[in-house]
Amino acid sequence: MLFLDRPDAGRRLATRLADIAGPDTIVLGLPRGGVPVALEVATALDAPLDVVLVRKLGSPLNPEYALGAIGAGGVRVVDRGAMRALGVTDHELEIIESRECAELERRTARFRGDRGALDLAGKTAIVVDDGIATGSTARAACRIVREMGASRIVLAVPVAPPDWISRIGDAADDFVCLETPPHFVAVGQWYADFAQTTDDEVSAALATRASADPPATRSD
């Protein structure tokens, strides 16, 4: 195992991101598993913390295998090659997408409530997840952040497959990853503790850094 748990991974990742710290830096975690990692990064960099709301479009037979992802603002990324390889039809994808749209709306209400998203215009956004598998979710998250006006996007993860940057393409400006093991199968295999992160844990993480988010940093 490479990491004890997500907080351990976040603390180690933060050391690689120290030179990005500054008044125009904002850390964004992917719920749910990326948020405990992002909390440690935001704390170390003394930066505001928010979430990027994205939902993976998982395969009907293996929900952990991403066929694509959707996100706030109508962002949609679909891996047509994966669909063909698994024999997934457009109709099946529509059913999956409808379900994930409902979950996206639920999470938006759960994590944001009446709070607006952080204002990313002209900012450096560090997008953090607990790892990269197919890259679809991270790619969609970076596209959302770009549309929100971030001037620089840094995608930072503890672990990913060796070809992870090619999977993201030009969605991010910079890439930071601690480990790219050659025999990568799944993110969870590189953590001693990879227990599911709960909604309450995400909310608590956001509340922990709320004092670093002055009202002027949030959009309506």
Quick recap of the structure?
It contains 7 helices and 8 strands, in the order αβαββββααβαβαβα.
Secondary structure: elements and pairs:
Blueprint: H1 6-16, E1 25-29, H2 34-45, E2 49-51, E3 54-58, E4 66-71, E5 75-78, H3 80-86, H4 90-112, E6 124-128, H5 136-147, E7 152-159, H6 164-168, E8 174-179, H7 199-208
Parallel strand pairs: 1-2, 1-6, 6-7, 7-8
Antiparallel strand pairs: 3-4, 4-5
Helix pairs in contact: 1-2
3D structure, described in words:
The protein has 220 residues and is α/β, with parallel strands linked by helices. The chain has a single domain (6-212), classed as Rossmann fold (3-Layer(aba) Sandwich). The protein is 36% helix and 19% strand. It is built from seven helices and eight strands, in the order H-E-H-E-E-E-E-H-H-E-H-E-H-E-H. The chain has helices at residues 6-16, 34-45, 80-86, 90-112, 136-147, 164-168, 199-208, and strands spanning 25-29, 49-51, 54-58, 66-71, 75-78, 124-128, 152-159, 174-179. The protein has a five-stranded parallel beta sheet with strand order 2-1-6-7-8, sandwiched between helices. The longest helix is centred in the middle third of the chain and has 23 residues, at 90-112. It is globular, with a radius of gyration of 16 Å. The model has no long low-confidence stretch (mean pLDDT 90).
